Prior knowledge:
The chain is mostly helical.
Amino acid sequence: xxxxxxxxxxxxxxxxxxxxxxxxxxxxxxxxxxxxxxxxxxxxxxxxxxxxxxxxxxxxxxxxxxxxxxxxxxxxxxxxxxxxxxxxxxxxxxxxxxxxxxxxxxxxxxxxxxxxxxxxxxxxxxxxxxxxxxxxxxxxxxxxxxxxxxxxxxxxxxxxxxxxxxxxxxxxxxxxxxxxxxxxxxxxxxxxxxxxxxxxxxxxxxxxxxxxxxxxxxxxxxxxxxxxxxxxxxxxxxxxxxxxxxxxxxxxxxxxxxxxxxxxxxxxxxxxxxxxxxxxxxxxxxxxxxxxxxxxxxxxxxxxxxxxxxxxxxxxxxxxxxxxxxxxxxxxxxxxxxxxxxxxxxxxxxxxxxxxxxxxxxxxxxxxxxxxxxxxxxxxxxxxxxxxxxxxxxxxxxxxxxxxxxxxxxxxxxxxxxxxxxxxxxxxxxxxxxxxxxxxxxxxxxxxxxxxxxxxxxxxxxxxxxxxxxxxxxxxxxxxxxxxxxxxxxxxxxxxxxx
Length: 499
């Protein structure tokens, strides 16, 4: 679907065609890079926490015999962070809307730091589990807050790339966790250092965040216009600043009128918000169900299939895979504002489907004496990461940071992030059981079928939001919901209110 370009809307493609000198470059504005870097530390915490536990668990089992002899305790130590993240993401949306993006980040940092201290000092596995829950709560809040804070503070023409930096920090955090795991393997108290050092970035972000302002769009929503203008003046030149302020003032007045008649629990009575949430939450679910965590999990097995039995080599491969994932995220930062969100997701899914079929074929022939299928599996793994990381890695988070109306961006973003974490938990808890029941090859084939469904979902339900202002995105959903005739929308709204 295409929407009519509003040449008067600051940041729109038509506006920037008329006033190319008003286009903002992140690299020419230290302030933009500064708030993006600080907010993205939340992504680093997200990635580090999801990656570090795999190495730490090896040494936790050495210190606590009850963990070594209980698969349930091992699974609980790993999965409780995901459970905490589900709760944190669900609560994070409300915290964002009520207290603001800045306070939500500070709250996440405090909770995460407390969790890191509890884990590092845990005298038994049960206290360790409590620490994992706390860290998960912090990660869940951060997973909602960082993309929204960055998106609302960014010029529309570079919004996708800046939100993509947060995704780069997630993959960078995973890569860092493997490096930290290697660094502390010979240090006394190995796993305590691995888990405890995660609190350092949270403390750094807390103090740096105190120096940053609140999101200007949230300030406008809360009628703190003078503070918002002070923030915007650091981002735009005077000519564009005036246009941006006029636009936000108009939007704020409209949003106030809308908020007066709609409560949080009424949010999905709006057809356009339902469509936006379907697209956003659907992308988050498919990001997990197309198997990123399962492919990462099976990387050591794939190495063994290729004929290499060394555990050290398997660990090195995990580091290489994480490095490829981070490198792909860098490519995604460039492509997301050039190729566009929708096109990037479709190309990414096409490559993921082909890669999963290669992986499935290699596992189907695992019993073959030929080493060719082992190398074919490694090729499938490399291709999967190469296609997933620049596309389906950043696109769901970027889309969710920009498709919701301002007054509901926090709560809808929180619910979408919750969908991501719940999907993550389902995949983690079910993959081994499914693989044991039907075989690894058929399991990868099932995931490939899910990826085909994801491709069809993007084609049908996900519009292109590249280069659109928040106002244009909202108009896009209105047109999808009601058509281009405003009278039809008014009539349908009145009909719904009387039904």
